[in-house]
Amino acid sequence: MNLVRLSPGLIFCLFFVVSHFTNKYVLSVLKFTFPTIFLGWQTSTGALLLYVTGKFGWVEINGFTRSAALLWLPGSIFFLGNIYAGSKALAILPIPFFFVIQNLSELVFFLIVRLTQREPSSWMKILRVFQRSSKSNHLSDLEQQLINYMISTFLLVSAAHPTGDVFGALEFPFLMSYKFHSGCFASGLLGFLLLLASVKMKSGQTPLQCAIWVLMAKIMASGLSVFVFITELSPLTVYCILTNHAGEALSIYSDKIQR
Q1: Torsion over CA: 97, 32, 44, 201 (sign)
Q2: The domain containing residue 12 runs over which residues?
Q3: Tens digit of pLDDT per residue, the chain (259 long)?
Q4: How far apart are CA 50 and CA 42, in angstroms?
Q5: b/e map of 3-12 (b: 16 or more CB within 10 Å)?
Q6: Nearest to 99 by CA among 3, 215, 252
Q7: What SS3 class is residue 56?
Q8: Number of structural domains, the chain?
């Protein structure tokens, strides 16, 4: 019984680790540093798989109006910026340091919200209005993600030629390598499976439990990545990584007390 209850979180951790390792392999080991091409492949694959599985009834996609998609447009822009910055960071940083930077960005956003909480600035007012309007459209997590994938794919494909990524990808030395094609195929598929695992986990557990699972997944990915990828560690960097995870754990514990 306990294993059944824990299985959504364990499956999420598995896909989280393998997905990050696959992306790291393509971006860092193979050095495929053409984000519009790589992310365009991932988002188009995710959109196609969501659409097909929704048509077959394997996942719940009820459809949405054009107005709902337009209202969710700011969320899609934030999503694209997040994955673009994440791919750039993951390409040059070891996975443990990638999570440190990721948590620091969340801390900066938290501090900005705190500082603007008493007298919200104009952009914070716009963000809160956007959150209320998006909730009123009753878009599910999968429907929101489908919109994110569709809009991101369109923008990434549009930017591929102006940025020169198309010509760079055509000259990529591993372009005809089975390792490259296998890595790209796995990255698209694993990203989709990670999304499904995340939605499944959120549907059956509290936000606090989900936050604990995410922390465990990050710790697992950080620890295992040292044995999979070349990672230079010093006492100072180890202290930084441990402090990062400890800080996230304390943040979750404080949320638990406040609830």
Answers
A1: negative
A2: 2-258
A3: 477 788 999 999 999 999 999 999 999 999 998 889 999 999 999 999 999 999 888 888 887 788 888 889 988 998 999 999 999 999 999 999 999 888 877 766 666 656 665 554 454 444 464 454 444 457 888 999 999 999 999 999 999 888 888 888 888 887 778 888 899 899 999 999 999 999 999 988 898 999 999 999 999 999 999 999 988 888 988 988 999 889 888 888 887 776 6
A4: 12
A5: eeeeebbebb
A6: 215
A7: coil
A8: 1
Identify residue 53 by its one-letter amino acid code: T
| 8 A C-beta contact, residue 87 and residue 35 | yes
